[in-house]
Every structure is written in structure tokens, then in C-alpha cells.
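idk why but the lab printer keeps eating my pages so im just putting this in chat instead. protein + guanosine-5'-diphosphate:
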Amino acid sequence: MSRKNRAMLVGSIGAGKSTLTNALLGRKVDAVKTQALVYRDWIVDTPGEYTENPFFYKNIMATALEVTHVLFMQDATKRKMIFPPGFSTGFNKLPIGVVTKSDSEKADVEAAIAQLRKVIPNGPIVVTSSFTGKGLQEIRDLVNCNSMEEIEEYVSAITEESVIFI
Ligand SMILES: Nc1nc2c(ncn2[C@@H]2O[C@H](COP(=O)(O)OP(=O)(O)O)[C@@H](O)[C@H]2O)c(=O)[nH]1
Ligand SMILES: [Mg+2]
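predcted complex ->
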């Protein structure tokens, strides 16, 4: 699948970024590493340190220039909120909130959604599991959308309860 749209994944260490990358691509894809960034097909995987340490925000901002969408990932099994409030509004890119590990017995999906609402005041949130495949097709579809209007239309047209629009 060749696409013009590209997504950067940001989130804490252990949030499930690399696992999600594998699950979304669903096959072995050659990785190109430039320093700490990993480029695989239409996905740019960033190190969790970039999100956890404000010293690296400039790296996130610079890398965002290369993509169309930024995926803000919140681990449903962790109570810790690592994004500053309104973080997504600092990017001139289409934001997608992603709740990871919804399959886990320790997951609190509602709490994770509430945390992502503070990061993304306006946009889609997808509840996912890289283990069961929940929400993965919705992420692929959202990254194919070219505007927030398209995203809103997509979310209202599907019956899948794994995606909400806020
Ligand atoms: N239960 C569950 N665990 C997951 C899921 N995705 C990732 N993990 C686990 O979370 C840990 C960190 O995942 P990783 O992808 O390396 O996180 P990263 O640091 O954000 O790249 C690993 O032990 C994964 O097996 C998921 O969908 N469900
Ligand atoms: Mg990783």
C-alpha cells in the first residue's frame, strides 16, 4: 500500500508505539533509523523519551514537519498523564488520540479517553489493542483522511464504537 499521508507516533516509554507500528503494518517492513527515529513505510515511530522529557519537544516538532498526522498514544493501563494540556494544538497537523492496551485486565479505557481529551480538545480518539486488532483499521482509515472535516465525516459514518469524536 502506498500512501501520501504519514503518521508520527508519540507517547510514553512502553505505551505500545512499536507494537502498534508492527500491528498496523501487519508485515515485516524494513526500518530506516535516523538517530532515535524509526521510519517504517507510512509510520514514524519516536522514542518515548521524546514525549517524557520536554527537552526533546523540539525534536518532536521538527519531525512533525515530515508528517500529515500525529498520533497521541495513552496507555490504558497507566494512570500517568505525560502530555502537557493542549499538546496537540501546538502542531499544525491532524491529531488522532489513541488509547492502547484496551484488552488488558488493568485497562481503564474511560480514564485514558479523559486524559486524551485534555491533549486533543477537538479530534478523533480510537480505542485500540495491538493484540486483538481492535481499532487498527480505523487508524489506517483516519490517516487516509486529509482534513478534520473528512475525519469528522468518517467518524459519524461508521458504527464502530472504538472511535469517538470530541
Ligand atoms: N496487553 C497489551 N499489551 C501491549 C499492547 N501493545 C503493547 N503492549 C505491551 O507493552 C509493552 C511496551 O510495548 P512497546 O511497543 O515496546 O512500547 P513503546 O515503548 O511505546 O514502543 C510490551 O511489553 C508490549 O507487549 C496491547 O495492545 N495490549
Ligand atoms: Mg518503542
